[in-house]
């Protein structure tokens, strides 16, 4: 389980092993994008430093798009690379596998060349051993995955101070800010189906993302506090796995740990030591298309750390 929001490196960066299906006759396997930086005369994967206050997911998407022109959809988490930074100290780079629609490349001051290469050719071209190690990790894992996201609703004030029916309790100011931030973060994984607890606070948490993507929000009693049952809630996740459609499931703190633990146990994955979530945070289970197993599991807050 990875939590890339944590870390005390002197320089933090994010990027991706961007890939597409191979298009050369007689060549099996994917092609990965390598960039050439004239300033250093090197070949590497697209990546870049986090801006002040920027979430690592947004940084990964932004840097890949800026350096390649491709808007990526993040896939499974890859190992973090740590090495001495040119400016001194330690540099930590969080990576994901990622896909995107190819677009014509336009050179700029930072990147003057982009090449799509097979994995063996990329291994020969890369300038740094840590990038070759990253490529091997990419090659070893499942290529095609899709995200199943378990989200805890945003901040909704104090329950004891709410006198109306609990299902009508709305997000507070902090929660509305979290919902706005989540719209951008969830979009990092591409379009998803949206399923919420039948409560105002869960539906409102998904509203900015739903408006931005045009997706409908459906509700389900099995993940609604007061009606929820761990087995029925886990059954919902398993149905989503069987259907193979990217999805976000927004629920409550009382249910999150059972959902995460139930999904992991049913799919043969080790349950995280702490499967809980803070308000406005989410787990992403990257499901392997071919085997319907968990290829990677990561947790994120809605706020940058």
TrEMBL record:
Keyword Hydrolase: yes
Cited InterPro entries: His_Pase_superF_clade-1, His_PPase_superfam, NUDIX_hydrolase-like_dom_sf, NUDIX_hydrolase_CS, NUDIX_hydrolase_dom, Nudix_hydrolase_domain
Keywords tagged on the record: Hydrolase
GO biological process: AMP biosynthetic process; ATP biosynthetic process
Gene3D superfamilies: Nucleoside Triphosphate Pyrophosphohydrolase, Phosphoglycerate mutase-like
GO MF: bis(5'-nucleosyl)-tetraphosphatase (asymmetrical) activity
Domain Nudix hydrolase: 9-139
Top-level division of the source organism's lineage: Bacteria
UniProt keyword annotation of Nucleus present: no
Family matches, as SUPFAM superfamilies: Nudix, Phosphoglycerate mutase-like
Pfam families referenced in this protein's UniProt entry, alphabetically: His_Phos_1, NUDIX
Signal peptide coordinates: none
PANTHER family reported in the protein's UniProt record: BIS(5'-NUCLEOSYL)-TETRAPHOSPHATASE [ASYMMETRICAL] (PTHR21340:SF0), DIADENOSINE 5,5-P1,P4-TETRAPHOSPHATE PYROPHOSPHOHYDROLASE MUTT (PTHR21340)
Official protein name in the record: NUDIX hydrolase
Lineage: Bacteria, Bacillati, Actinomycetota, Actinomycetes, Streptosporangiales
């Amino acid at each position: 389980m990875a939590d890339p929001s944590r870390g005390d490196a002197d320089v933090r960066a994010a990027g991706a092993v961007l890939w597409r299906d191979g298009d050369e006759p007689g060549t099996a396997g994917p092609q990965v994008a390598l960039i050439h930086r004239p300033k250093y005369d090197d070949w590497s994967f697209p990546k870049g430093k986090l801006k002040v206050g920027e979430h690592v997911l947004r940084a990964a998407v932004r840097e890949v798009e800026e350096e390649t022109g491709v808007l990526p959809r993040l896939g499974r988490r890859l190992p973090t690379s740590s090495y001495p930074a040119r400016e001194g100290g330690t540099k930590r780079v969080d990576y994901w596998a990622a896909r995107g629609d190819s677009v014509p490349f336009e050179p700029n001051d930072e990147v003057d060349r982009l090449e799509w290469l097979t994995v063996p050719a990329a291994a020969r071209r890369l300038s740094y051993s840590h990038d070759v190690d990253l490529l091997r990790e990419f090659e070893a894992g499942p290529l095609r995955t899709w995200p199943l996201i378990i989200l805890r609703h945003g901040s909704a004030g104090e329950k004891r101070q709410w006198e109306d029916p609990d299902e009508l309790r709305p997000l507070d100011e902090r929660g509305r800010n979290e919902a706005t931030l989540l719209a951008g973060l969830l979009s990092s994984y591409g379009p998803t189906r949206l399923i919420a607890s039948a409560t105002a606070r869960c539906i409102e948490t998904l509203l900015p993302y739903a408006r931005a993507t045009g997706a409908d929000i459906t509700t389900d009693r099995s993940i609604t506090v007061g009606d929820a049952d761990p087995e029925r809630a886990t059954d919902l996740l398993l149905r989503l796995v069987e259907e193979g459609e990217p999805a976000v499931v927004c629920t409550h703190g009382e249910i999150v740990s059972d959902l995460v633990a139930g999904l992991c146990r049913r799919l043969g994955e080790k349950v995280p030591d702490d499967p809980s979530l803070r308000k406005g945070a989410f787990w992403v289970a990257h499901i392997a298309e071919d085997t319907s197993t968990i290829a990677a599991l990561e947790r994120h807050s809605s706020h940058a750390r």
